[in-house]
Structures are given as C-alpha cells and as structure tokens.
Amino acid sequence: MTTTEAVPRTAGTASEISYPHTLQQVLRVQSFQILLVLVVIFLAFTALAPDVFPTWGNVRQIIQNVSILGVLGIGMTFVIVTSGIDLSVGSNLVFSGVVAAKVMQAMGGSGWGTAIVGIFVAVGCGLGWGLLNGVLIAKAKVPPLIVTLGTLGGALGLAQVITGGVDIREVPAVLQDTIGYGNVPGTTWPTISLIAMILILIFGTVLHRTKFGLYTFAVGSNEESARRVGVKVDRQLISIYALSGGLAGVAGILSLSQYGTTAIAGQSATNLNVIAAVVIGGTSLFGGVGTIFGTVIGLFIPAVLQNGFVIVGIQPFWQQVAVGAVLVVAVYVDQRRRAAAARGQSAKPEGKKKLFGRRSN
C-alpha cells in the first residue's frame, strides 16, 4: 500500500494511479468476495487431504453434484432479483420427472425417440406450474411465498397420487448412458454439467445483457417506478416464474437421467438449498441485486464443504451448520450494503449542490 501510494506522487503515470483503485473496486465486488471464500475453503481441504481432495476425479464429482442445482439456481436468481421467492422448484422437479417417466414408460422403448418426448413433457409440466405461479402472483396479487408454498404441496401431492407413492425406475437407457453418466466425447467432463453450463451462459447473458434482464432488475428495484416508465410488470413476473418452472422441468429430466429414478422423497430440501446458494452468491432477498455468476459460486460452497467434510472424516452435519453461518453472514453483508447505499443516496443532494456550486463559480 505504501508503494502504490508513493508511485503516483513521484512517477504519476495514469496506469500506475488507476491500478490500486481498480483492485479495490474488484475486491469490493460481492461475487468476488464469495469466490475468495470458496478458494479459501478449497485450499483448506487441499491441505488437509492433498492426495484425495484436489484430484480431478473428486473435483469432477463435485461439479456433477451441483449441476442440477445450478439449473434450478438460474430461475431462482431471476425470481429473487424481482424480490420474489419460488418454494415450489423441488416439487416441480419431482412432478415433471414423474409425468415424464410415466409417459416414457407408457411409450416403451429406450431410444432417443422416447427420451425426446420425455424431455418435452418434463419441460412442459415445469412450465405449466411456473405459469400458474406467475399468474397467481402477478394477476391475483397473492404473495409469492403463499402461492409457491401452495404449489409446493400441490405438485408433490399430485406426483404421489400418480405413482401411488412408489418411485418409477424405468428410465430409457439412452438418457442414463449419455446425460446421466456420460461424458462429453473425447473428455472426462460430465455431459450433465455441460448442459448446465450452457444454460448458465445463456441465461446469464439474458439477465445481464438484454432488455428482459434490465426489466427484471427494474421490477425488483422498485415495481411501481418500473410500471411508470412503461415496463409491463405483470407480464415480466409471469415470464420469470414461467422460466423458473421450465428450468425446474429441465432439472426434473436431468435428475431422472442421473439417478434413474423419480426420487419422490429425495427433494424435500432442494428448494431451500437453491435459495441458500442464490443468497450466499450475493443476490439480495430484497430484490434489484444479483448475478448468475454469484449463484454458481454460492452453489459450490456447500458442495465443497460437504465433499471435504466426508473426505477428512468430519460429520457431514457440520456442513449444514457451516452453510447456515455463511447464509446469515451473506444476508448481514447485504443489509449493511443496502444501508450504506441508502446513506449514499441521502447524501446525493448535498453532493449535487456542491457540484452545481463549482459550476456556478
């Protein structure tokens, strides 16, 4: 710090002056801070178990484990940026997988023809639940927490009615061989992770580089102001909840491919895990702030903790304690940032007065 401060006074070049400021700006980015936490956790487990933890086989397993949650996390990021919540993604995943499995079971066969029909059915089911959520929230003005809590129970209950509470285990072999356990040809990279990565890149671009993403942030920042400047808020909210539902349908077929079963009882904590990851990644529960990149980092922190605890012989229950602590810290930091931003806004009129005063001089 002493060196960087002394350089501008002696040399004074533009690059030397701006470098420390750029570094400080990067360090203040919340997603970068979360990334540093992930790196520290990774290095700690690497030091504790150097022969097992940092190997490609173990890292590949972690990447594969977060892939399905990553798909759900995309939709959840959009929803939480609008200051909403979607508690139904886990049940939606189960329902979509159950209906798709039933349809593929009825069609018979294990080739791509049956599998493609199953994929469309799963996405369609997820989209349907998402549209229902969106219409009830945007048009009927029912709070998102209540709507998605209701569809959480409804989707899971219907899945149990359809199956009689017994998991379906007849999944086309082509889905398991290529998507569930397959690798990208010529590599050891899981196909399911490539699919998740492509979706993350596409919807990350949509959120941060398109008008749709801009409107999403506008609705989350101030819904009434967004409406006044011409944003069709109801249509935006319906689209976002439909997107979250559709991605839950995608996650449903990915889960079916990876586990070879509908796993009706295995998704009870999925919604909370996804919400926790999104918040840990820096997306504000109060809306208007968030990144897909932060969500991805937020997904890896609990996954790395769980994997590392198992390898070093610590009870995996501590993973829940650690994730809970990180979640509370993330929300606390978010509140501090918002309070600081509010103070900055209140100071703006004074700043403008000074600025105009200089101009008048």
Largest beta-sheet details: none
Helix-strand sequence: HHHHHHHHHHHHHHH
Instruction: Give the rounded overall mean pLDDT.
Output: 85
Query: What is the beta-strand fraction?
Result: under 5%
Gyration radius from CA atoms, angstroms = 23 Å
Question: Structural class, please?
Answer: mainly alpha
What is the overall number of helices? 15
Total DSSP E strands: 0
Distance between the ends: 36 Å
Please give a quick description of this structure.
The chain is mostly helical and 361 residues long. It has helices at residues 2-10, 14-28, 30-48, 56-81, 89-107, 112-138, 144-163, 173-180, 191-209, 211-221, 223-228, 233-259, 270-280, 292-312, 317-360.
SSE arrangement:
Blueprint: H1 2-10, H2 14-28, H3 30-48, H4 56-81, H5 89-107, H6 112-138, H7 144-163, H8 173-180, H9 191-209, H10 211-221, H11 223-228, H12 233-259, H13 270-280, H14 292-312, H15 317-360
Helix pairs in contact: 1-2, 3-14, 4-9, 4-12, 4-13, 4-14, 5-6, 5-7, 5-12, 6-7, 6-12, 8-12, 9-10, 10-12, 13-14, 13-15, 14-15
Characterise this structure.
The two termini are 36 Å apart. With 361 residues, the chain is an all-alpha fold. It has 15 helices and no strands. Helix 4 packs antiparallel against helix 12 and helix 9 packs across helix 10. The chain is globular.
Summary keywords:
361 residues; mainly alpha; 15 helices; disordered N terminus; disordered C terminus
